[in-house]
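Let's study today's protein:

:::
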Amino acid sequence: MPALAFGPFVLDRSHKQLLEAGRPLHLGGRAFDLLAALTERPGEVLSRQALEARVWPHTIVEETSLRVHISALRKILGDGVAGARYIANVPGRGYSFVVPVTVLAPAPEAAVPALAAAAAVTPANPPRRTHNLPARLNHTIGRSAVTQALGERLLTRRLVSIVGPGGMGKTTVALDVAEAQLGHHPDGVWFVDLAPLSDPARVPLALALALQISVCARDPWEALLGPLGNSRMLIVLDNCEHVIEAAARLAERVLRAAPGVHILATSREALEAEGEWVHRLSALEAPVPEDATDVAQCRAFPAVQLFAERAGANSDGFALTEANLGVVCHLCRQLDGMPLAIELAAGRIDTLGLQGLAARLDEMFALLTRGRRTALPRHVTLQALLDWSHALLTEVERVVLRRLSVFRSSFTLESATAVLASEDLPATAVVEGVIGLAAKSLVAVDVSGEAVLHRLLYTTRTYAADKLQRSGEAGQIAAAHARHFEDLLTRTLRDRDMLPIAEWLQRHGRMMDDVRAGLDWAFSPQGDTLQGVRLTAAALDLVYELGLLDEYRSRVDTAMEAVASLQPPQAGLELRLRAARNFLHTQTTGRDYSRGANFARTLELADQLDSVPQRIEAMFSLCANAFGTGDYRDVAEVAMRIKQHAPDPNEPVAVLLSDRFLALSYHYLGRHEEARPLVDRVLHYPAGNAYREYIGHIPKTVSMGILMARTLWLQGACDQAVAVAALAEAEAEGVNPLALSQALAMGSLPIALWRGENERAGALLDRLQAHATRHSQGYWQSWARSYRQVLDARVNGVAPGLGLALSPVEMLSGPAELDMLGTLAVGAVSPLGVERVDGGMVGWCGPEILRADAENALRDGTQAVAAAEATFMRSLAMARAQNALSWELRTATSLARLWRDQGRRKEASSLLTGVYGRFEEGLATADLVAARALVDELN
């Protein structure tokens, strides 16, 4: 009967073998018959009844039997791995083999060398048994580099241990290595499973049994070491952790007596035997959130590949798509890339579905309860796996483990002792416990940075948290945890101005998960409200640097509600929280513009406290709030008061902060000539990094660079504006997320749109949208949506003012966005925008808002020509007063068109030529090109 070939496989029907690249795979009789039936009729749909008749003739079977065997076949074939698909389910009809199948010629020695080799082995000449490795039913995913490295290491080291937590795939890797070593050891590769042993004394007997050597149970060594003495073999000692000392003694004794023997061991902790070389097996890599966008790219990550394969094998309807990619990646990350946890989770997808699985992940140990029936009992569920590990711990290690579950991110030994130590658990015991847990692979250790960090895997932490809750210690440990992180945040701020901000964040940014956990506890019914308020305030600087403004706004609001009820009153905490609320409510969505009461209370508290830094911080917050609400006159007023609260009016930080906000106020009021010297002074003031403490953590090079770029464009230096905006954008890279959003949304992007460079504007807008979405910045997402509407209208050829469906004013982020929109599209000018200009609340955009309003009135016929001309003249005068040459050109162009249509061509030409002639650069920008064309027409 000829063999059938498909993909990398050959189905040898004569010898009932399935081979992959010449290597025989273990396949049960039923599974073989099923695969044969499918491959003999590729492309056809075979009904369940037809397949059952072929595989189970004359037998009545359960409905699920066929599905179980189909699932097993898919696992063996790697169905779903790297996009491969072999067996398809056709709902309501049956199954179909969907890859091409080739019938091989009868001479297998020519076509399939592996088959020829197999056929040469006859019952009269049986092969010498060279291993006892168990058959592999599944492909190993993501471990090829490790397997190769360990194989090479075994050539030079005689004792290699694979160490890692339970469920990480140590046995799988060891078997891969062992199979690859078959050709290197003439006397074979022998697998010794120590998992079933409860008595360490039986470890030598397990080795003897694997080698088929008869020994005396009382003293096995004499009979065992004799045959081993001259052997050249590899022994795999699997699951050593519960008999660790006996396994270590066996390894040392065998290696001394048998110089040709090598040993590969797997264990939760190192054997600590003589000559041991330890490899700590890491988790399967999963994509970080920002990479979870492309199916092909994410499928290359082993964790995703494993989930997709196992889920596809358990659910006919599952396929990895763009729609479910984010959820799959999230699951893989939450499960810490642990192969066993991923397999168990994928096994529940048929009953819970992907979304249901993700939603119920917190119920992990109740959820992930279905494993392979043939697996070790402790590998059937995560609960059993961790119960097994927990039983092997000392009592101190058990206490330390459950208390460590309070940490949500990496922690140092200093933090562990500060939080965990108590009267019954001294600091030395905590350190010993953490070190012991790390040795047993229950605590991961990271030595890559300046400080040694420890971390519980998510699965282990969830298990330990349940133990902590049951112990009655949860409240005590949570309180110590919150106090510690308040103290730690206060101490870490001291070195912030001594380090580059990226390095500071790398060291301390990890604390944010613990801050969240501390606040959740503190404001819970079992928590401590004062501690919650203190922790909220202590974390503000870290929040600003990380750009977590939208998220933290609700945290500040919660703390503000609580601080009012504290006795005795906490004026310092209240002021810090009010300052934070002032700032956050101008940089996040859903702001409340009624500032009066909060404004007055902030000033009252600032006067009460004898703290210069807090007073200056309060003034900053009021400036930021006034700026966010578009009240630039208030910005100037508060900015001038800042120096009054400094011990020395010439103190650099006070001058820096005051001048910065004065520069911003003057620019937005249209007083550009007054703003420019202030910009220069801010940029050159010797305040070091101290500005971070007061001005929202945006470097002065970014904030002033944006202002300079805008001013240059307004004053006609169109090309210089692009260069300065790009420099500010570059300065914002890697500083904090808010800085880059500002540089793009208020600098580079509007300048590109003003210049008519739609393609470049599109690229900048894509960047802004991706960045604001990644960092959950609702405020800047609103700006991005508005920019997108303007750009889409331009690209689609929508005439200004016609069919431009912008978001309603009340849906915008605030007045600043409204003002900006009025400069980008005539149809975006609103009555509120005109009212702000007429009332003197905003000036920088005033000439353009007035011009656009007049254009709209002419087009709609709601205003007489004379009235529109008067508005144009007012706009022209305002632009000239501001030295805003670019706005002057736009208004001159509109007025020249009006005069042309009235037959006043000479006046039109004179006006426009005079303005156009003052430009020395940027002649290719859209406004200048249009003006040049109109001048040529008029002449």
Remarks:
- The radius of gyration is 36 Å.
